[in-house]
């Protein structure tokens, strides 16, 4: 899986991480190579473009640290972006929803994608790993022997299949499966629908009719990972017509270029839940975006090195800031750093809760309607100030206030609110600083 892409990318980053200092052009050259590598792996153009852009922006905004090289930091950024592209905001594969027995799972996909094999692989997992009683039914009335194929697989893995009644329609088989699963107390029943060579209306109509009968908890699309962007197109079509809950990418054991995996989530918004890694009935794995990103880059050591360094920097920054507070220093730059930290921590309750005496203020701030949007606006206001003004906001005159508010696309009243908050916080810091001299804050800092 991903061997070629992995080789290409590690080549790029091996060179990059060996350099001490990095110029902008070093980074752009590397990113150009990343772009080519992704496109050659058959990742879609728009996904590739967004990927490179995101890395570029993050690389430009990164803080410089002594303990890791810029190249190593770029590796970490690329790694995080890979995880993001593979997973969206969820980093762990969701379990299949198989509560409320009997839970129907609808398997859809084109002929030859590996649908029947995958049905059996998942049934085996569900019964062996999760201890579920599973019933499988083939709804394929088109392909001769398709129903027998599933029955044979069922015998191999010790999972029941619905008895075959010749001449029944797909919808009738689905109804019978539902009935049987309910009567006989199965936890899960899996419906293996018929595939076609291409998407056509008849196929979609049939799948829709089956879906309406079964009301599936999961509708899994099986696509051949070797088909690259075609796999993504198929997923978009199926999702538009029947609605899918996830994707299984098969043949990821081959020397496919991996593009399907990288584009799937970004293009369709649907998660890859499993990958098929061979013909054997246990050759299936959950899709873990973190692990896959790690495998693609092959630079796990660097990623964890940078993670550690970042933690240290954050701790150092916090300590530096605390020292300033102890001296009663708190200017607009400090406030900006605080606001940014809050955004990162997803709210201010947590951060203020950690500071002695700030609990009450956190409440007030929250009541004042503090949220991410407000935080972003306040940072924008501070950014519109000059260096001098940030260090000493008292010098702000009415005309400058107007300009600053305008620069941030806001009103002067917004700026006044910010200035008031800054004054209150500065006062608070001064008081805390004095307490600190008597040892209280030192104690609190440990
Ligand atoms: P269906 O027409 O979609 O039901 O496809 P089948 O399940 O009959 O699979 C078609 C062929 O692909 C069979 O020979 C399977 O053994 C093979 N196959 C399915 N999944 C995988 C996989 O993940 N890797 C490999 N190498 N072969 C697979």
TrEMBL record:
Its EC number is 3.6.5.4. The keyword Ribonucleoprotein applies. It is an enzyme of class 3 (hydrolase). It is a peripheral membrane protein. It catalyses: GTP + H2O = GDP + phosphate + H(+). GTP binds at residues 109-116, 192-196, 250-253. Pfam families: SRP54, SRP54_N, SRP_SPB. Keywords: Cytoplasm, GTP-binding, Hydrolase, Nucleotide-binding, Ribonucleoprotein, RNA-binding, Signal recognition particle. The keyword Nucleotide-binding applies. It is found in: Cell inner membrane; Cytoplasm. InterPro entries: AAA+_ATPase (IPR003593), P-loop_NTPase (IPR027417), Signal_recog_part_SRP54_M_sf (IPR036891), Signal_recog_particl_SRP54_hlx (IPR013822), Signal_recog_particle_SRP54_M (IPR004125), SRP (IPR004780), SRP54 (IPR022941), SRP54_GTPase_dom (IPR000897). Residues 271-284 form the SRP54-type proteins GTP-binding domain. PANTHER family: SIGNAL RECOGNITION PARTICLE 54K PROTEIN SRP54, SIGNAL RECOGNITION PARTICLE SUBUNIT SRP54. Belongs to the GTP-binding SRP family. SRP54 subfamily. Part of the signal recognition particle protein translocation system, which is composed of SRP and FtsY. SRP is a ribonucleoprotein composed of Ffh and a 4.5S RNA molecule. Composed of three domains: the N-terminal N domain, which is responsible for interactions with the ribosome, the central G domain, which binds GTP, and the C-terminal M domain, which binds the RNA and the signal sequence of the RNC. Involved in targeting and insertion of nascent membrane proteins into the cytoplasmic membrane. Binds to the hydrophobic signal sequence of the ribosome-nascent chain (RNC) as it emerges from the ribosomes. The SRP-RNC complex is then targeted to the cytoplasmic membrane where it interacts with the SRP receptor FtsY. Interaction with FtsY leads to the transfer of the RNC complex to the Sec translocase for insertion into the membrane, the hydrolysis of GTP by both Ffh and FtsY, and the dissociation of the SRP-FtsY complex into the individual components. This is Signal recognition particle protein. It comes from Pseudohalocynthiibacter aestuariivivens. The lineage of its organism: Bacteria, Pseudomonadati, Pseudomonadota, Alphaproteobacteria, Rhodobacterales.
